Amino acid sequence: MHKIVPLVLLVIAGCTKTSAPALPPTAGDFVKNNDGVGTAQVFGIDFSVRANSSGVSTDDTINADFTDPKQSRASKRFTLGDDVAIQLESVNASEVRFQFNDQDFGILKVGDKVVIDDERNVEVNGTPRSPQPAE
């Protein structure tokens, strides 16, 4: 009987383990606009944007689920100037869905570098990217 009790306690203790949520990193996130040059680091992704004015706004939501980390979600939206709106939705700890001015530009990965020029062309890591076709 004495051998069964520790085994039962070990099984119960193993069932209550929690894990870290599967979310991209947020440490070091910032958004700024200096004289029409917008820069940001969000979810570990760097952004450089030519903005037509100096305004900035941000909004974010993080729902961390420690009991079922795969259910964790995070979203961040920021604007630069009058005509640039970027929406990011976490997919997992290293991937984020990227929308620019309400158009889907696919998946970004932590560490990517996004450049948006005066003509609103988008490059990711030096490669041009176009919006995804609407489904």
Blueprint of the fold:
Layout (H helix, E strand, L loop, with lengths): L3 H12 L14 E5 L2 E6 L2 E6 L5 E8 L9 E8 L3 E7 L4 E6 L2 E7 L3 E4 L5 E3 L2 E3 L6
Parallel strand pairs: 3-9
Antiparallel strand pairs: 1-2, 2-3, 4-5, 5-6, 6-7, 7-8, 9-10, 10-11
What does this protein look like?
It is a single chain. The protein has 1 helix and 11 strands; from the N terminus they run αβββββββββββ. The radius of gyration is 20 Å and the shape is globular. The model is unreliable at 5-14 (pLDDT under 50). It has one helix spanning 4-15, and strands spanning 30-34, 37-42, 45-50, 56-63, 73-80, 84-90, 95-100, 103-109, 113-116, 122-124, 127-129. β1 and β2 form a beta hairpin. The strands form 2 sheets. Strands 1-2-3-9-10-11 form a 6-stranded mixed sheet, with no helix packed on it. The termini are far apart. 9% of the residues lie in helices and 47% in strands. With 135 residues, the chain is mostly beta strands.
